[in-house]
Amino acid sequence: MSVTATIRMYNQKNLGDCFLLKFQAEDQQDTYILIDFGSYKSNELREHEIASHIKTTVGDKKLTIVLTHQHKDHISGFGTSNDILKGLPKELWLSFLDDENSKQGKVIREMTEKYWKKSAKVRQLLLKYFNTNAKVEQMLQAKESLDLFAEGQIGGKEMSNLLDLVDHNVKFLTPGDSFFLPGTNDSVKVYVLGPPTDNVQLAKLNPRKDEEVTGLKSVMEFAQLDLSGTLMMDALTAFDGELSPKENSFPFNKKYLSKGSPESAEIKALYQGEPDRKIDEDWLSEIGRMSLHMDKLTNNTSLVLAFELVDSRKVLLFVGDAQIGNWQSWFDVKFKDTEVDGKDLLSRTVIYKAGHHSSHNATLKQGLEMMNKKELTILVPVDEAVSNNHHFAMLRPEMVMGYHRQSLGRVLRSDTIVQSGNNFKLAYPFYSQEDFENLKVINDSEGSHLCLDLTIKG
Amino acid sequence: MSKMNYPQPFFRKLKGYAFDPSFSATLAKREVNEVLYKIKWEDTKPGPVGEYIAVIDYDPSKRRFYEPINLHHELVLADYGMELSEGDPRFHQQQVYAVIMSVINQFERALGRKVIWSKITNADPAGGKLYKHEFIPQLWVYPHAMRQQNAYYSPAKNALMFGYFQAAHNWNGNNVPGATVFTCLSPDIIAHETTHAILHSIHPYLMNDTNQDMLAFHEAFSDIIALLQRFTFRSVVEDQIRSSRGDLVSAENLLGDLAIQFGQAVSGNRRALRSFLVEKDEHGNWKNITPDPSLYHTITDPHSRGGILVAAIFDAFARLYKFNVADLIRLASNGSGILGQGEIDPDLVKRLSKEACHIADQLMMICIRALDYCPPADLTFGDYLRAIITADLANDPDDDQGIRYAIMESFRAWGIIPDEVNTFSVAALKWENPNEFFDDGSQLDSLIKTIKFAFDPEFSRTLNFSNTKIQEVLGAFERILRANDRKIIFEQTQYLAAVVHDLFKMKMEILDAGVENLLGMKFDDIEYFHKGEQESDNIRLRAPGRRVFQVYKCRPMILTDPHTGNSRKVMLIMFLQKVNIDVSETKYKGYFKDNTFVFRGGSSLIIDMANYEIQYVISKSICSSARLFRQLDFSIANVSLDNNALLMQDDEPFASLHIH
Known about the structure:
Radius of gyration of chain B: 26 Å
Largest sheet of chain B: 5 strands, mixed
Shape of chain B: globular
Shape of chain A: elongated
Structural class of chain A: alpha/beta
Number of strands of chain B: 19
Strand content of chain B: 15-25%
CATH superfamily of the largest domain in chain A: Ribonuclease Z/Hydroxyacylglutathione hydrolase-like
Distance between the termini of chain A: 9 Å
CATH architecture of the largest domain in chain A: 4-Layer Sandwich
Strand content of chain A: 15-25%
Oligomer: heterodimer
CATH topology of the largest domain in chain A: Metallo-beta-lactamase, Chain A
Largest sheet of chain A: 8 strands, mixed
Strand order of the largest sheet of chain A: 6-5-4-3-2-1-16-15
Radius of gyration of chain A: 24 Å
Number of strands of chain A: 16
Protein name (chain A): Metallo-beta-lactamase superfamily protein
């Protein structure tokens, strides 16, 4: 049964993911899947524009919404443009971690919730006590760059809006699940690859060639970070003068605090005498580390889906912001009643949605190298300006070069449509817009591109 | 009370922990964990604040100071300092002071000169480039600097920062869940961080991450000193030997005590050390790991890679120990070499410990001395092996204990083999004498003349034009050797370096063009070429001529031969030049600021001052294409992955290294 897939990448004019997939099977109504809809920075007008465009496109047909993970750059659109999207029959796909009954999901949710409460409090205290301190301001800025991804992660209106939108018609997906996409007459099959089902892999965030201890360590590390976060908060809370009973005896009995003895006055004078060597703010650097860790943890919970066009065996791979630990788990996923496995799906991939806006740690090298199909095209939802402003490690030369090598230059970007080869020494160029035979660029009212449509015949 | 009546004591003895108390609060370890640190006597102010370090117990999380300890208070002096106490910050101050000072003492003993802290600052108020080398009297030590599971050396602050934290709320090893752990009480951690600081004071350019051994070396060297430092306490070693029945280096013992505590103490990421010393066999029992020479070529992460160097040194220790105590074991076992059941004889314990401590001490001295024989930049483990061999050969030509052989054997077993040597022998491994490898005799001649011109008053007199600064040079030289005040030593060394720089510059630029090549530098344009697999992969790069170089160390020293009692006066001069290479036309484009790669080369020159002969020129040539392209490939493969700006520790290179 032949089927045509159209993959649409929206240009948010912002950092974020928004993909609309259309499957046209013979003698069937079109089937639509919306994978994520969000922007890193607030972007209401553009999101309205995109939502209206989605609505016009889908018409009265059924829309399945996939939310890979609860980061702002994947979800914010459902907060701003809910009203526009209302009224269609819909279904929502989430990862099993979002299921209230999932044990792991619960652990992660609790950890996250605790973290955000603490984070908000620490921020408030820092602003109170280090208001005019440039160093701390810098720390907070860097922290916020990361935290912004997760704005509203807990109890956010986006999530409840989304649930309302689909009338609580939710399907939780677990790696190993596979099923024919309804309405396609068995011409499209969905395989669920991630997030990993065991904590160990979920927590493995950083690729290393010879890493001895893997995931468990990361969970431990997080627990430890969490503890030092608490210690930091306790200390800041006690800044207000009166020491809490705990701070009174931590880490030492308060009688050891100097009360202005001549000896300690001398030490104090020494310390005050060399401002460059003072350490008043260094201990606060923990906040950045905690944010970084939290961010990675959430990215790694991304729902990862492979859509197989059954007849032609072509695969469209959507990985959310999956990080290395997530990728590695795909090789162990077993699907029922089929020989298909993670490696096989990767090797047949013709569309790869670049993980985490092309960050260094969101595409596993071995995984990328398995994508051997000549027609492989890589879609990169990214915004170079935002990434540069916030010093995110996106569009790193080594990663872009890897995409170039693997796809033979077929790289599409949401912000610039094609990838420029100016900064690289290349044996063959990146594809230009004209080089893509199956690409259609749709413009917005102002004449810049609203979205890119890529058609795959299968 | 007048001091006049009493002679000044040689030593100050202070009570302290031998291991991290939070990991060794067991009945069996209770007694051995208290040891006496014996350090050189000095006057101290409350803090303690001494000549080398100032312990500043400021807790920024409380915005308060803790009361400083006064080591001269009669109640403190009376009984080797304060009693061990986790709950009294003043004891913490005593502990860091004792461990840091004993590490400093070890370095001074090995190097025959004083440890001097310094810092390079930009002295141009307008923000231009006017770098000044500044004397820093004291390293600052913050025993309670943060509430994190971390401790690090901060080059920017010239300070050691120790954190405290709460142990996780689950049982793990010997720690108590939720208990407070102080990194400043762990001698391993203190020694490790102190070593970072001292190493940085000697070799500031080893922090540049130009090849995969550099960061690994900093870590490994600090671990080696911390590990060997454990063997300075006879009572601790005796206990280990008693409980292991003499087999100090068996897997059980390593695992049971040394490596585990070491690993636990220095936080999760130091597990690397243990994993290079012991492994599990097919039955799940621990056994000593078999050295694997291939690891050196496959492992890249700094901690694991550093583990290889630590393992190689420890392996040398194990070989020497086994070899040296074989006779004692035979004597104690009626010639069978197998000891009977039960505890071993206390006398034997004493003798075995003495051997172990002696070997550890010698190894530590050798490892430290080798620092003076390292190239000034781009160090590899192979270079370090050559430095060890050369340094030890200079210090102890006989080697009747076979230490050099043990080191060579273990380095070879671990695959650490310098690229450029043909045979693995002492003769081949020691750095070559310049006569052996410079073809151009006239240039070498010219270099020797330059040296004589700079330092030899007799030579100066034979020339038409004399070195007008010769008296000042000799004066500085003599003051450095004579002075006790580190500030004077520093200033005179700086002065000497400046004069030597100018003299060499003048000679090399005007009189003998090209002589700088012998010192690993080049003033004219430099062409680099990389031959690719195909013609089209060939890369050509060019560095525009640059006549700027620095003499960043110029240090006379007196070395004493322990066997003959002869002393030699040598001069160590380090030259370093940097060039800027435009890589915008190559595949390296897009990785470096302004597409300019900064490449350094230079040499350590060791001169025998008795006859002004060049003993060694240990150089990393700035003209080496192979080295440049190796460095470029390494740099682009290791573009720092996690964004340091996000960790907010841009200027704290060791902070993040220790966390990851």
